[in-house]
Amino acid sequence: MLLAMTKPIAAFFGSVGRYAFDAAAGLGRFGALSASTVRATRDAATWGRLLVVQMARIGVESVPIALFIATFTGIVLALQASYTFTGAVPIYFVGTLVGKTMILELGPVLTGLALAGRVGANIAAELGTMRVTEQIDALETLAYDPVAYLVVPRVLAGTIMFPVVTMLADAIGITAGWVTSLYMLDMSTEEFVRGLKLFFEPFDVRFSIIKATSFGLTVTLLGCYYGFATLGGAEGVGRATTRAVVASSMVILVLDAFWAAVLL
User: Fold this and answer.
1) What is this structure's pTM?
2) Is residue 121 part of a domain?
3) d(CA 139, CA 130)
4) Structural domain includes residue 37
5) Domain contains 15
6) What is the number of domains present in the chain?
7) Is 205 left (phi over 0), alpha (psi -120 to 50) or beta?
8) Of the four, 86, 136, 178, 231, which is 20 to 30 A from 106 by CA?
9) Per-residue model confidence as pLDDT tens digits over 114-138
């Protein structure tokens, strides 16, 4: 009887132990890839000619989706602020809420999450396909460093372009909130700008850039990690892509809380 009761408990703790071991092993592999990426930055001759191409793919091609999200976020913020402030707070505070919320929070976070789905998935699928078709092994055979050739340009491009796309999203979101205030809330430009300038601090922009930079670094690095770790053919590529998006989204939210606790 006692043996029968202890079996489920033993199985439970065994599962927890295996999960913890796998998590620790994955963290170690991720750390090793990160260290290899730092070392490979010295090989500028390999990654330098690929950087601009990756900046265009990761940054420029992501602008439409980021601006689409920012536009409707700005519209919703203006409308909800007007609804919340009705009869209690001066209407020009709509500009304050739209500006502060877009720059400090929704601009970088929503852009990061959107690009995690687009960029992280793309990188994981591309590198995962190269892994299962042995193209990465072929690079090593040809005396190319796969990390310098595949990882470094993508990570650098993401780190550079995520802040650029985020700043565009912030600007478009605020502009959308301003247009909504003019034509749907019967506000004047002077009232909106008054609220926008009321609590604005230059540090707000720096804070947004810091968050976006960390998001770009982690999204691209996680995409590369899961792509390099792909096993099992087409099914493995699908799993790697899903894991890259989920992990990137979770890390973005963790970093969002971290930077708020540290810098604000």
Assistant:
1) 0.88
2) yes
3) 10
4) no
5) no
6) 1
7) alpha
8) 86
9) 999 999 999 999 999 998 888 888 8
